[in-house]
């Protein structure tokens, strides 16, 4: 069914976009002699190079300066910085309510760049769209194909809404479990995070859009995000945060990368020669362009020479200092502070990205969107991703229950989503409008997918009641009188602030009261990331839903009732207490923005489960943990040294009574991990998810990326594997690895630079 629920104003706006886009299309397709960039048989490199050769300096300068939604702020900017013509062009062409806009060069068929956030779907206050589960939830699927499918869906919606550039591809590691944006990222492990973010980017770019890997790099806390200086050694960085980005880059080939707000080792990330020039462009061979996070630019020549290609989001964040504004860049070029080749390079990188991804040749076409089938994609993602943390005495799936008491979490209306620039305006509207904060980083949005309604549909003959949970005694009474209670708890997180691990608003007390009234209680957790669960030992069943997307209610109900067998695995560790964290206090937490704080990541690459292993801590729930309604057996673990790495084959068998999906997890570690210079005893080396019917076995093979067996050596810029015995461990969670085999590895070393990519 095609859902055409758009406002008249919006349709008018789309018509304008369609007309401009069509004009560009005509220009881009009409081949003229002397215009080799229109020849689609030539490489993107050649076409971009020729285009730059045909551009004036002013035209190049247009491409490297992007604007935020052109509201009153732009009008206040002095004309000496942004010309009245440029302001008028932005006002006339930018998509209202969108994240950003970069003017093109119509004379050469160079399209305007229409930018939309973010990894969960199109974000525009005026454009209703489909919300995927949060990226952290999707990472729990342990299946990059799930991210790819989600990316293809949101990419198609974005193009049909007139956009050609997605600010999607959050890849920061969940180093700080309270980071308010962890839900936009893909977990704590570099391999998993890189594979899952890479899948999303690949999916988006398969639709002919640019996707943006972000926030580069080590932007692992939101408190004081624009002023925090992060200290971390190059070795630790390359083995943790940067490895996640490197893998995502290889998997997804994003055409743009967004540098972050913070400083890394004393240099702003958007003018950081090490990150942008040395690592990204030289070592990884990145050919696309680096755009700044919104307004994250502090200089003109420094930023340009240290690798920034595009200032984006002007004016932003109460700052009208547009260091890449054409007049400033022009002056720096004239005085020789920026060499002329550098402006050509910036423009060429942007043009290469536009051509390589198809944006130049295939402008987006505004079109109706099939929201029903897009919601199906989101539902499948949620059904692959929800994690069953506990299920004592097989309380779940619910079978033959006569009465159910649903309590709390606005479960009568919808499911929670995260706040800030990634918050999708959902098709069907906010299910619980008016909650505080209503303004940035709010509004708090509940996606209109009621778990209560979905449960009623799945259990038509059961009596199902709802209590909001505000009155604890009433909630306990309703739990007491039902066969089973299901209590929903929520934690809203968002951009620009970090959370607490404790659930807010007395929800722990509510869970305890419900558990006391009815021990047959299931707890469903909708959270941005990890939370403490002081009631966990008393709760027989816990389902971790994160932010489960526009069909989250249906996915929850189908899992609780056994229509779908849960197969998500935790992409992050859940700490047992705050005392287990590497950094008990987040510098600048809860204080007004702008404090010049500092954090030293002295845990190095020992992030998440590596930290717990290294310290000997037992988390509440370990990385990789997740239950199923059936059981699986792993066998025939056979690792072998093969072409410079370890190839691991093994067999997974469904040893239980129902169909389900197994996730085989392979971890690796040297016998003497300290002697080998590792940050921790083991690392995730590979994983494989397989659907298995009862009794069925499947053999799989995973190849361990050699970087996961190595340490990074800053002197010489090399990866090196120490000769010795390595353990290969197989199981179903980082703390459940019953099979172990050994492999001997010879010493190996290779350059960390692979510019041929
Ligand atoms: C966020 C980015 C986002 C940009 C545009 C910034 O505040 O950090 O992730 O893409 O805004 O909305």
DSSP strand content: 15-25%
Mean pLDDT: 95
Radius of gyration over C-alpha positions, nearest whole angstrom = 26 Å
Q: What would the principal axes of the Cα set say about the shape?
A: globular
The side-by-side strand order for the widest beta sheet comes to 10-7-5-4-3-2-1-11
Bound molecules: beta-D-glucopyranose
H/I helix tally: 20
The N- and C-terminal alpha carbons lie at a distance of: 42 Å
Q: Largest beta sheet, briefly?
A: 8 strands, mixed
> Multimeric state of these chains?
single chain
Could you describe the 3D structure shown?
The protein has 757 residues and is α/β, with parallel strands linked by helices. The protein contains 20 helices and 30 strands. The chain has an 8-stranded mixed beta sheet. A 6-stranded mixed beta sheet has the order 12-19-18-17-13-16, with helices on both faces. A hairpin with a 7-residue loop joins β28 and β29. α7 runs antiparallel to α15 (371-385) and α16 (451-458) packs across α19 (552-560). The longest helix is centred in the first third of the chain and has 22 residues, at 8-29. The two termini are 42 Å apart. Bound molecules: beta-D-glucopyranose. Beta-D-glucopyranose binds at residues 99, 117-118, 167, 214, 293-294, 313, 421.
Structure at a glance:
The protein is 28% helix and 21% strand.
Please give a handful of descriptors for the protein shown:
757 residues; 20 helices; disordered N terminus; binds beta-D-glucopyranose
């Amino acid at each position: 069914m095609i859902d055409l629920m758009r406002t008249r104003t919006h349709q008018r706006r789309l018509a304008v976009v369609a007309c401009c886009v069509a004009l560009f299309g005509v220009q881009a397709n009409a081949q003229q002699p002397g215009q080799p960039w229109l020849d689609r048989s030539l490489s993107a490199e050649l076409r971009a190079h020729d285009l730059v050769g045909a551009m004036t300096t002013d035209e190049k300068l247009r491409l490297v300066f992007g604007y935020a939604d052109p509201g009153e702020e732009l009008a206040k900017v002095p004309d000496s910085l942004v010309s009245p013509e440029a302001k008028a062009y932005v006002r006339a062409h930018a998509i209202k309510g969108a994240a950003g806009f970069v003017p093109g060069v119509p004379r050469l068929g160079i399209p305007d760049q229409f930018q939309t956030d973010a990894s969960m779907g199109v974000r525009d206050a005026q454009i209703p769209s489909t919300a995927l589960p949060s990226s952290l939830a999707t990472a729990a699927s342990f299946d990059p194909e799930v991210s790819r499918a989600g990316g293809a869906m949101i990419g198609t919606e974005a193009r049909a809404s007139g956009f050609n550039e997605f600010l999607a591809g959050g890849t920061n590691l969940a180093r700080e479990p309270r980071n308010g944006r962890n839900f936009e990222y893909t977990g704590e492990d570099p391999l998993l995070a890189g594979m899952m973010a890479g899948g999303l980017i690949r999916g988006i770019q398969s639709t002919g859009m640019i996707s943006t890997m972000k926030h580069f790099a080590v932007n692992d806390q939101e408190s004081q995000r624009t002023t925090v200086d992060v200290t971390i050694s190059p070795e630790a960085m390359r083995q943790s945060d940067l490895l996640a980005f490197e893998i995502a880059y290889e998997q997804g080939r994003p055409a743009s990368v967004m540098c972050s707000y913070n400083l890394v080792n004393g240099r702003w990330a958007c003018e950081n020669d090490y990150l942008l020039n040395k690592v990204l462009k030289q070592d990884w061979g990145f050919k696309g362009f680096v755009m700044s996070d919104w307004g994250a630019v502090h200089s003109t020549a420094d930023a340009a020479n240290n690798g920034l290609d595009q200032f984006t989001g002007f004016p932003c964040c109460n700052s009208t200092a547009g260091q890449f504004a054409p007049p400033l860049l022009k002056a720096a070029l004239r005085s020789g502070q920026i060499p002329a080749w550098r402006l050509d390079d910036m423009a060429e990188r942007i043009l290469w990205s536009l051509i390589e991804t198809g944006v130049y040749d295939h402008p987006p076409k505004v079109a109706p969107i099939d929201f029903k089938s897009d919601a199906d994609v989101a539902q499948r993602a949620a059904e692959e991703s929800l994690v069953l943390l506990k299920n004592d005495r097989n309380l779940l799936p619910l079978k033959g229950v006569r009465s159910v008491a649903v309590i709390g979490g606005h479960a009568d209306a919808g499911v929670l989503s995260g706040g800030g620039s990634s918050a999708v305006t959902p098709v069907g509207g906010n299910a619980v409008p008016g909650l505080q904060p209503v303004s940035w980083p709010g509004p708090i949005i509940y996606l209109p997918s009621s778990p209560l309604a979905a449960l009623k549909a799945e259990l038509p003959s059961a009596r199902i009641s709802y209590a909001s949970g505000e009155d604890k005694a009433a909630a306990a009474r309703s739990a007491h009188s039902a066969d089973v209670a299901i209590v929903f708890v929520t934690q809203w997180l968002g951009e620009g602030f970090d959370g607490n691990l404790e659930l807010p608003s007395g929800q722990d007390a509510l869970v305890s009261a419900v558990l006391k009234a009815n021990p047959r209680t299931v707890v469903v957790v909708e959270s941005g990331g990890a939370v403490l669960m002081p009631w966990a030992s008393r709760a027989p069943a816990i389902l971790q839903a994160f932010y489960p997307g526009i069909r989250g209610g249906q996915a929850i109900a189908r899992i609780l009732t056994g229509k779908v067998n849960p197969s998500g695995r935790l992409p992050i560790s859940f700490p047992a207490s705050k005392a287990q964290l590497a950094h008990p206090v987040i510098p600048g937490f809860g204080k007004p923005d702008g404090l010049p704080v500092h954090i030293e990541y002295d845990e190095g690459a020992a992030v998440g489960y590596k930290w717990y292993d290294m310290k000997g801590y037992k988390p509440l729930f370990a990385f990789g943990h997740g239950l199923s309604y059936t059981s699986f057996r792993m066998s025939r673990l056979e690792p072998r040294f093969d072409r410079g790495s370890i190839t691991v084959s093994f067999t997974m068998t469904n040893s239980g009574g129902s169909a389900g999906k197994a996730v085989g997890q392979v971890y690796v570690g040297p016998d003497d991990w300290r002697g080998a210079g590792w940050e921790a005893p083991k690392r995730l080396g590979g994983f494989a998810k397989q659907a298995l019917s009862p009794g069925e076995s499947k053999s799989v093979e995973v190849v361990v990326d050699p970087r996961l067996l190595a340490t990074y050596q800053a002197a010489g810029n090399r990866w090196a594997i120490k000769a010795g015995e390595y353990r290969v461990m197989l199981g179903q969670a980082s703390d459940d690895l019953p099979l172990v085999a050994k492999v001997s590895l010879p010493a190996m070393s290779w350059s960390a630079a692979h510019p041929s990519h």
